[in-house]
Amino acid sequence: MRNQSTGRYIAVLLGAVALIVTAAYLSLTNGAFDMTVGDIVRTLLRIDPQPEHDLVIFDFRLPRIVIAALVGLGLGVAGATIQGVTRNGLADPGILGINAGAGAAVVIFMFFFSGQIKGAGWFSTMAMPLFGWAGGLTTAAFLYLFAWKDGKLDPQRVLLVGIATASGLGAVAMYISLKMNPSDFEMATVWMTGSIYNANWKFIVAMLPWLIVLIPVIVRRSYILDLLQLEENSVRSLGVAVEKERMILLLGSIGLVSACVSVSGGIGFVGLMAPHIARRLVGIRHVRMVPLCGLIGMALVVVSDFIAKTVFSPAELPVGIVISIIGVPYFVYLLFKARA
């Protein structure tokens, strides 16, 4: 039975990887400038490289695919962690306001360093995740302040406070963006809807350290997420420092969300959908679910970005809108399921 379960888990992981690779292949070969597999292989292996192929692959398509994959990975893992910590299947970085808090902080950064936005200098690129983390951390503190009841987080209060916080911080971000000059306002507006069309290698370098450090911390503590589903007194009786572990996991997830938001804007619903899909496929054990959530998040964002840039070509939708088209009905379905 255990071998069957392990075999199913490996098969699901390989299926997710295959979907990601297929979507990446389609994104590389399709677009305003179509390329063959041979063109891509020759360009990547530096066999008779062509300047126009180098430009399309290395400056436009490949950074965008890598950013989409990394953002999906971070949001998927963060979503699983937040749902585990709050014991709320409807929790999501966007619904709880963490996306909005990180986004508002990044918009404030854009406002004060507006001259550096278009150039995407190293200072602005590397500093944005730090500002996003500060905004996400402030939002988390606000959630704790108003959702704390009888010595623990109340899941219903967390959801209600998160929705109110997200609305308020979204309004703050919009107000600040209206104070920007027209060109920066346009960029900030597109960014707030969730877009990776401006992806470049600097953004990858800026967010990669956060993922490299924080994802292993969360994965190593994934068994704690299983224990946190028990009654708090039962968890304490097992010798677990409940609040300390919750804080570490919450801070880690906020760091992941902030790094993602700083390069992609407010992409929502990935952290909501990925854990539910993962649970249906491999069960509730977080040691298996958390890595799978990362892969499902990668697949969601890479596939959605491909749809966003090709379906309405030559016009292009922000990837956040495409994911929302999928995510809103799914959220409504989960709400009705929770009431049943």
Question: Which stretches are low in confidence, meaning pLDDT under 50 for 5 or more residues running?
Answer: none
CATH-assigned fold name: ABC transporter involved in vitamin B12 uptake, BtuC
Tell me the domain tally: 1
CATH class: Mainly Alpha
**Computed CA radius of gyration, to the nearest angstrom:** 20 Å
Shape: globular
Oligomer: single chain
Strand order of the largest sheet: 1-2
Which architecture name does CATH use? Orthogonal Bundle
Number of helices: 14
Distance between the termini: 32 Å
| Helix percentage range | over 70%
How would you characterize this protein structure?
- Helices cover 77% and strands 1% of the residues.
- With 340 residues, it is mainly α.
- The chain has one domain: ABC transporter involved in vitamin B12 uptake, BtuC (Orthogonal Bundle), CATH 1.10.3470.
- Helix 3 (51-86) packs parallel to helix 8, helix 3 crosses helix 13 and helix 13 (286-310) crosses helix 14.
- The longest helix is centred in the N-terminal third of the chain and has 36 residues, at 51-86.
- The protein is globular and about 65 Å long.
- The two termini are 32 Å apart.
- The mean pLDDT is 84.
